[in-house]
Each structure stands twice: as C-alpha cells, then as structure tokens.
Write a structure and sequence with these properties.
149 residues; alpha+beta; four-stranded antiparallel beta sheet; 10 strands; globular
C-alpha cells in the first residue's frame, strides 16, 4: 500500500517552488538507484540520512544500511561540513516504487513540497559514522576503480 506522505532529504534548500528530477548516481550501478527523478522515502530518518551523506565535505563514498529501527550511513571519506540540511514532506500521488527497495519511491515529475523543514546537522549525527579500516579494505576490493586511500 502506498503511504500518503513521503520524505526527501537535501543538503540545500530548493530554488523555486518545486523539487526537480535529476539523474541519480550509484557506484554499484543498481537500476533502482540510477534513475532520473525525484527520489523519496516513507521513512523520515532515511531522508535525513540521505541529506547528511550528500553534504559538502562528504565524498561520494558512503553506504546506507538499515540497522534495527533506524538507518545508519557509513561515510568512507570526509564528514558533513554544513550546519543545516532540509527535509521535504511530499504527497505521494505521482510516485512509484523504484524497484527492490521497499521504502524507496520516485517520480519523474517536478513536485512542490507540502512542508520544508530546516534541520540542524548536529542533532542527527547519530545517523552517520565514519568507516573502519576493515570496511575500507572491503570497499577497495569491491570498487577497484574507485579506491579509498
């Protein structure tokens, strides 16, 4: 069943009234993560986590896991260098599932948020952590073309 509301997290406030579709990137090239559109989730903390790992200062090397009752992002390089992120509450009307990920939704249409919240990064740092040496070694084996030093 489709939820009534979805959430989109971003390190920046939108310019204009609508979130615009854009091409997503994923080092694993998973089909559900490289579509063009506005991505959203029905889990607010996942949207917040996505905003955190998209901040200036965080390199494009991160991994989002869902640990018991909350998301956790592992950051392989860098750390958020922003004081605030934005959470957009969206009506789900034009969204469809992206594929295998049950809480991930997408629309190819620009969408006007129902609500925009400015959130303090420091309040949500428990949703992210730096990687361990072992995890860096595993990353380098998996993504040989994008090694982490």
């Amino acid at each position: 069943m489709k939820p009534k509301l979805l959430y989109h997290g971003s390190p920046s406030k939108i310019k204009g009234e609508k979130l615009l579709p854009k091409k997503a990137r994923d080092l694993g090239n998973r089909k559900e993560n490289i579509q063009t559109g506005v991505y959203a989730t029905d889990i607010k903390e996942i949207a917040i986590t996505m905003a955190l790992i998209s901040c200036k200062g965080v390199k494009k090397s991160s991994l989002l896991k869902y640990v018991p009752d909350k998301p956790l992002a592992i950051i392989y390089e860098g750390w958020p260098e922003k004081s605030f992120i934005y959470l957009y509450t969206l009506h789900s009307e034009n969204f469809k599932k992206t594929g295998k990920i049950k809480s991930q939704w997408i629309t190819d249409k620009p969408i006007k948020p129902l609500k925009i919240e400015r959130l303090k990064v420091s309040k949500y740092l428990s949703l992210i952590r730096k990687t361990s040496k072992k995890e860096i070694d595993e990353w380098n084996k998996k993504f040989k073309t994008n090694p982490i030093q």
